[in-house]
Amino acid sequence: MTSTPIKQSVHVIVNGKPYSAEVPTYRTLVDFLRYDLGLTGTKETCSVGVCGACTVVLDGKMVSSCLTFAVRVDGSEIGTIEGVANGAELHPVQQAFIDNGGFQCGACTPGQIMAAKTLLEENPHPTEGEIKAFMMGNLCRCTGYYQIIDSIKAAAEQM
Amino acid sequence: MNDFSFHAPESLKEALELLSNYDGDARVMSGGTALMLLLKQSLVNPDHLISLHRVAEARAIQVTDGVLRVGGLVTQREMELSPVVREATPLLANAYSRVATVRIRNAATVGGGLAQADPAMDPPPSLLILNASVKVMSASGERVIPIADWYSDYYETTINEDEIVTELLVPVQPTDMAWTYIKYLPRTEDDYATVSVAALGKAVNGKVSEVRIGLGAVSSTALRASDLEAALQGADATFNVLKEASQAIADIVDPTSDPRGSADYKRDMSVVFARRALQQVLGVKD
Question: Above 90 in pLDDT, residue B190?
């Protein structure tokens, strides 16, 4: 890596708010969100697109922010966990995770919430099989998954 | 990660000119799900990265003259969900639906997957038995490569450095043949398979009328078992015949030992899963 990395400017809308920054071309989207924009809700754990902790919504599609370059999202709209609640009012998916024990340590939770919210927007009344198929890419080492499935079923009732 | 210049051309023409100008110092990125891993590990260190996300071309899915035509920038999630693909080639729609996770399929593209050519990917066995072909384009023109001549080695294809995959061409799947795609996943549902098998088949009056079979994850490229297909032509469609014939698979696979199984185990499982796939498409019970 050279001492003066090649930089480019990135203009994005994150959770409805515009941001601009000058970043090295190799900056990943998850690092951009956390270190350049200070939005540390999105977590990075596996760094190879497997675990789902870094899940964000890019122009309406959920993606791994660890497998996306910040310069790639110039001009795009991004949704992160910080944009899910409406002020102090939690989103039904967030409330359902609290009510149903859908998390313990919380490291995977922002990704779980982003994926679950995307699922329910695409498919408001998923079957248990559909929940499992869609959420397969979001790993959790605490809950054993059953409470996450219960949380999503409960959220579907509320939405 | 190595330092690189990032380019976001708005047309294939512009992308191909950049690729030609940087002559070997550039890499093309579409979804990025595979290339990003190679970049993170410094297995590739391009001076220039050409991202195709702003290119509006090569994103259509259509059937013309009995051929499904899929733009290279169509995502794998679109392949899974497209009513056109499901109707024309249900086997292929199923194979793409089994790739990794929704999040990866949302980003990963058809052209990117073809160029990456990991032998354990889901689509290749189906592409082989559907007699697909790949259209590639360079600044100086385009050419069409039959899928049988596409995969050349681990992560290697016959594409040239100045070319981009622009289209996948797949003859419409025969509607009178049953199809299946099975994979053995001893670890997790989103993992690469220990062995995967795609098959098409038809039995008439208890005899094999036609059968096609392809395997993934058990050699340096996906394989088509052409000799087995020929040997089964006209054979009795019975469990014992299929079990006997499937032994031939052990001689054509060349697996490597890894956490998904030892080479010997993968060879044995290749035989078992080939037999099961043949049973499914020929309607033969245990």
Answer: no
**Are residue B38 and residue B106 in the same domain, yes or no?**
no
Tokens 């709209």 identify what position?
A77
Q: Is B143 on the interface with A (CB under 8 A)?
A: no
The CATH homologous superfamily to which domain A7-83 belongs is Beta-grasp domain (3.10.20.30)
Hey, is B60 helix, strand or coil? coil
CA-closest candidate to residue B181, choices B221, B226, B129:
B129
Residue A3 pLDDT > 80 = no
* Interatomic CA distance for residues B161 and B20, integer angstroms: 8
**Fold of the domain built from segment(s) A92-158:** DNA polymerase; domain 1 (1.10.150)
Interface residue B8 vs chain A (CB under 8 A): yes
| Interface pTM, i.e. ipTM | 0.95
Q: Do A72 and B8 touch (CB under 8 A)?
A: yes
Query: B3 and A115: CB-CB below 8 Å?
Result: no
CB atoms within 10 A of CB A96: 25
> Residue ranges of the domains in chain A?
7-83, 92-158
Same domain, B68 and B166: yes
Q: Is the CB of B36 less than 8 angstroms away from the CB of A68? A: yes
- How far apart CA B11 and CA B15 sit, in angstroms, is 6
- Give me the total of CB pairs closer than 8 Å, taking one residue from chain A and one from chain B: 84
| CATH number of the domain residue B160 falls in | 3.30.465.10
Asked whether A93 and B133 are in contact (CB, 8 A), the reply is no
pTM, two decimals, is 0.96
> Which residues from B are below 8 Å from A2, CB to CB?
3
